[in-house]
Amino acid sequence: MKSALLLGLLATLAGPALAQTPEDLFFKGKTITIAVGAPPGGTLDPYARLMQKFLGARIPGNPNIVVTNVPGASSNVLARQIYATAPKDGTMIGEVFHGVAMEPLIGQGDQRGFDPSKFAWLGSSHPEIAACAVRTDMAVRDPGDFLTQEVVLGSTSPGSPPFDFPTMANRILGTKFKLVTGYGGGQAMMLALERREVDGLCIAWSTMKTYLPDILGGQRHARVIAQSEMETTPEFRAAGVPPLASLAKTQEDREALAFFYGPNAFGGPFILPPGVPEARVALLRKAFAEVFADPEAAAEARRLNIDWAPLAGEEVQRRVEKIYAASPQVIARVKAALSPPK
């Protein structure tokens, strides 16, 4: 009798620990693809590779994680693919440039192929602040000099941060940046700067400091003049680098810039298509959150010399909703500022 009672008690205690829900079983034996909306070796790629290393063990069923690259149109090609054709079961995750979040609002082409407010946002590993640097032989010492001196910047295509950030500055603040487009990415632009093909560049700070880790110390051929947030971040404050937004003259200017900079808070976000079951979205958000909190993942980011200041999926989703709640007047002004000259 006692043996039977003991066995019954053990079964009762073990039951909840051993019980598995359908969601716990779903990914067992499956492969999750993380599709990166940029070329191999670009700004987004190392974050996907880091997730490939740590994510599978955090998901019930321990699925295999693979990474593929789907570059094109500043991640908009991948965003359309995720939105329209990706399996709605959590087995395909996209990593995109943060500008995708507002592309249908301010984009200049036909961006009706996806609605970012309907994606399930899983999280972001870092904020994506832009920084403007110029050659040290240029007579540019502070953001105010951009109002009086023409500075030739290396750039990529419209819709990408190296193009849109200085274009916004020209149209809203009155800077005199001249853009030379056609560069393939951050590495190509950094090489152009070193070769003196261009005077400077405005690119993701995470990219710039990867290639020039001591640039804030003045030990390179270029210096950082300004950064893209509304307020100076601690890293730039310590180096005496002000925000370019300090040139704003009116409240309307500041509101337009604040809206445009909104997605900077969630660089390289990870997304799921609309229609993935809510329980599976929650499961994957939890797995991402566990990787974000993992000291070993943070150590890997330091080893790779990439920024690591994660933002949970729920918070990214809230920020995207805030973007889509902006006033029509602000949206129209930003879109007009990014429109090609007539």
Care to describe what's here?
The protein has 342 residues and is α/β, with parallel strands linked by helices. It has two domains: 171 residues, 3-Layer(aba) Sandwich (D-Maltodextrin-Binding Protein, domain 2); 132 residues, D-Maltodextrin-Binding Protein, domain 2 (3-Layer(aba) Sandwich). Helices cover 40% and strands 15% of the residues. A six-stranded mixed β-sheet has the order 2-1-3-10-4-11, sandwiched between helices. The protein has a five-stranded mixed β-sheet with strand order 7-6-8-5-9. Helix 3 packs antiparallel against helix 12 and helix 10 crosses helix 14. The protein is globular.
Topology:
Elements: H1 2-18, H2 22-26, E1 31-36, H3 45-54, E2 64-69, H4 76-84, E3 92-95, H5 103-106, E4 120-124, E5 130-135, E6 151-154, H6 161-173, E7 177-180, H7 186-194, E8 200-204, H8 205-211, E9 222-227, H9 234-239, H10 251-261, E10 270-272, H11 278-292, H12 295-304, E11 311-312, H13 313-323, H14 328-338
Helix pairs in contact: 3-12, 10-14
